[in-house]
Design goal:
4 copies of one chain form a homotetramer. Chain A is built from 14 helices and 13 strands. Chain A is of the alpha/beta class and 342 residues long. In chain A, α1 crosses α11 and α2 packs parallel to α11.
Chain lengths: 342, 342, 342, 342
């Protein structure tokens, strides 16, 4: 089998998760999240966030989570602001629009929204005499880390959140890879900070060691009325809710979530050094588990025969950007093998 | 822990599924269903259906599957016909209407549509001078077994399907518990028959031994264009598609799906005999894994202290209908324990 | 041209409306309802309702009004309760479902909801342990007069509204033919009563003398935030809002709306007497401008050659129900002509 | 009353329309477009387009038309490409997204799409390995004239349409002000050309002499199945369809539509000369009935006290763009009055 750094979801689950699924397999537990493991997972996440009153729900995937959360929080005449490179802007097949809402796209700066540009947009909107004919900005969406692996600093996130509070619209943080962001050596944010600096976010499981699953965390009592029913209405409610509860109970026991995130970040840093030391150019300086490398057509072809990675974007006729990702399962052996190939 | 017959999704997965998840856990597989196990599962299901050209997709849950399939097949001015007791009519929190389509409700007879009533409805619709102001019937939905555990005979299903062909609308069969239907001693249908007698159906995994997962099978080349993208748009695409592929590969190896279904049906038959022998009255004669029993208020209270079951409906002031379900995990010991309680 | 009682929208507008359109035609007025005539119409309707604080908006047609009002007031997980014969249940081509919401159908009694059945439904819903998997009843819809021309008494409407208040859901009254209801000799309700006994209603113009147009009246400060924008979002905002403003300004000047409604009701009463005196059977006893008559196939054919009416429903193989409607334009001559035909 | 050039919908209807409404007012005509005037209007428009087989429908307003046409033609996984300044991108309150579809925004060049940029976008989309995770481009939308009053040349429109045919997606032309475009001295297109160079377009009535109303013209048998029902489902069907039929019958009798369009264009040209002769700067060179003028803050304030116009956009701290529009009702007197003010 060919060596692969294609993504952070090419392996199964962290082995402790499988162990726990097996250990609890014969227990008879009520469905739809009314089980003890889901309860425990909620308590542990509340503790990890230092938010005893957080309202927490478990869903299956990132696009699903974005669709359910965003459409449940927006009023019908509102849209959601996002960077033009944001996942909801580009790679969710129009899931937000399918739910009836516009994604209002602002420029992305290595994947990030700029608070100053956001302020200008909001000011201009509320000064526009035609605004009643336009989609109202009803929420701000950002991802941490971004789709490019980059991070908002605490100051940057605070600036965005202050604006949201000023305009009384919720800030929603897409944490599909939250662990890799928080555990980055470049991050100055903690999980409790995240809870303080937005109104709702999700803790990604699928890409951080789970088989699937995302934990949605509403702070400030922002959970919409009957969110459970909205989840069901979107076809997003699992009958065997235990599957999500057990996984997150595991991930938030003994800091597993953070330990495997840090491991992947470290592996990615070594990968980055490797590329640099071999004379490769990086597309941007990602401090998290995804590394974006520039390859010329020749390198692409040769390397592509020996190792899997993701094509990201064409840079020009003879160069492309490709992505190498690390995960909980990435080990020194695979890095050594990569080193040899380079 | 209290004995429970609450539903067929109170345990985890059949142990062979967990074994296979573990065995393959470290394999690096591409995401979104582009893995070898998904491919194998598709091939095995095609074979089991005797439909080499069936188009097969894997989704996570029943409501999700109904929403994605129905909304992808209907045109915007069409609705779906269903029994008034059908799952989509009652217990999916309006997931079909959320996607923009009316559920056109016809009477249910122990959960079943009656072909003659369906014919009358369709005839009346096409004779109605105001039909262009009405929702067009664009699909027929039925469940096999029904929400009451009952079964269509081959003749009954054929009659419904003939009508669908006559009116050129697809027939969609909700097989959330398909195995329990096919393996019932009262069934005169096989899986290939199902493939012959509708245009799309799903093979339920969640309630038949999987952690989660449903296999959608389109016959007659009925799969909508770019169905993959529609799945994504509904937030229904799993990144680690392997999770679905491995489960269905397991269920369709060595007839596991059918063996565990038959086992549950047999357990349910014993349960039924048990209730009858103890003088309990059945609400209806279900030939599958769910049994519906009438309890008076006293019995409800006493029994409820020792064993878990589902409340189904109030019959009158002093009687209720409750449901006892069997699954792959139901064993003789639990039946013996139930016998003692009764 | 053949004599016609086909509907109450077969003629143009009351001549005073055309006069006023002409009189004001060259005035330069801002668009989208920001004109003096719209303002005046709002004030006059407020006065007629004895509701100085009513929030009033003008829309173009009945289905549009129902869709915009209902979808703007419901939360995403809610549906609207209506009689199974209600306009939104049958003859709006699924406009409510298109906006994402289920129409929860209760039995109709000559078109009317029964308060006791409504109470039972609501009680059962809130006692149902599975209600979080179901569409929440978020509004009650009724029409006055109903689609069968029948009327709720003050007592009946009060009973329904009390329930709505008890369950804290708005009551919405579809007044496509409101004038004909209020001016009926059988009505014990006034326009201010209507304002007191629901949360939102509309005063139908299209079928009561206007070219088109309906006036939506929100009481109790129930108008949704940014309703103007929702109207636009539904494609329901007219650029030349004056067209609606001038028509309603006219209809609510010198009681024109009520006078032409009473006239039509009187014509319909004479029509009813005519049918009865000629030995025809009525399908039901409608006290408003629409009369429903039973014809045998022979009568249908013969009469149909000399006068236009609407086919309503097939009663049995040899009889049908047909509708004769009166409007502002119905005059004694046409009744005399009808008398001769009968 | 203050002189106004605020928009082309500040007056009522061309007087011939009112005359015809009056003349036909007492005729009894079937509803929903089944009347002789609608039939005649359809025939006359077919003739004017040299398209005897065109399928034609009448709707009430521009946003409504865009929503109904676009959502009826797109499949659920598709979006519509438009200039970022297109009406559907900005000023329709998210009506397209409300119907479930993304507006895919490309750069606007004085309001126009560039065929080369469109080609690049389409090529890139079909080369993107992730395209199945993205919204498919399912239609191209453009407006003629654009929101800035500018025009596509025949060559430019042909280039866009060739691309659409190459990619097998319909081209939809928003003709809210179609007459002003076709009658411009700068236009090299005729109405039959429009019919040849797109798959569906609408002939705007609201802004070109009608009270309200737009005529949708499908060529190439592109009308969606049961479009009438889709219109109803969107709440866009008028009961008194005669109101639309009579207006368009009038507009397409004796070339009225074209004559009043040319008149407005001529008035606008004089207005333009006036502004230039007085030393004002134009924001762009519009060849149609809307003129975009740059005013400094002082001019804005002074002029605003004596004449109404529309604020368009802020240029910088001390300058704004404003719009002056001409219509069928603009006469020499008002231009003289404007001249004096300038």
């Amino acid at each position: 089998m060919m060596l692969s750094f294609e993504s952070d979801y090419i392996e199964g689950a962290h082995p402790t998760i499988l162990e726990n699924l097996e250990k609890t397999n014969y227990e008879q537990l009520s469905g739809y999240g009314a089980d003890i493991y889901t309860e425990r997972a909620i308590e542990k996440i509340r503790k990890a966030c230092c938010r005893p009153d957080a309202e927490i729900f478990f869903l299956s995937g990132g696009t699903q989570t974005n669709q359910v959360v965003i459409s449940s929080l927006l009023r019908s005449f509102e849209g959601v602001i996002a960077a033009e490179t944001g996942h909801i802007s580009v790679h969710e097949a129009g899931a937000i629009e399918y739910s009836g809402h516009k994604v209002i796209q602002l420029p992305g700066h290595d994947g990030k929204l700029d608070a100053e540009e956001l302020r200008q947009f909001l000011e201009a909107f509320y000064q526009d005499g035609n605004r009643e004919h336009m989609v109202f900005p009803g929420m701000v969406y950002l991802s941490y880390p971004t789709e490019f692996g980059t991070l908002y600093s605490k100051e940057e996130l605070t600036a965005v959140y202050s604006l949201c509070k000023e305009y009384d619209i919720p800030l929603y943080l897409d944490g599909a890879r939250l662990g890799y962001g928080l555990m980055s050596r470049k991050s100055d944010l903690t999980l409790p900070d995240i809870g303080d600096l937005c109104d709702v976010f999700y803790i990604g499981g699928t890409k951080v060691g789970a088989l699937m699953g995302e934990a949605v965390v509403f702070t400030n009592r922002r959970a919409p009325a009957h969110f459970f029913t909205s989840v069901k209405q979107h076809g997003a409610l699992l009958a065997k809710g235990r599957l999500l509860g057990i996984q997150f109970d595991t991930l938030f026991t003994d800091d597993l979530y953070f330990r495997i995130s840090r491991h992947a970040d470290e592996m990615a840093e070594e990968m980055k050094s490797l590329f640099l030391s071999k004379g490769y150019e990086l597309y941007l300086d990602s401090p998290t588990n995804q590394q974006f490398v520039i390859l010329d057509n020749d390198q692409m072809e040769k390397l592509g025969k020996a190792v899997k990675f993701s094509f990201w974007d064409k840079l020009d006729d003879s160069h492309s950007v490709v992505r190498f990702a690390a995960s909980w399962a990435t080990d020194r052996e695979s890095l050594d093998a990569l080193a040899q190939l380079l």
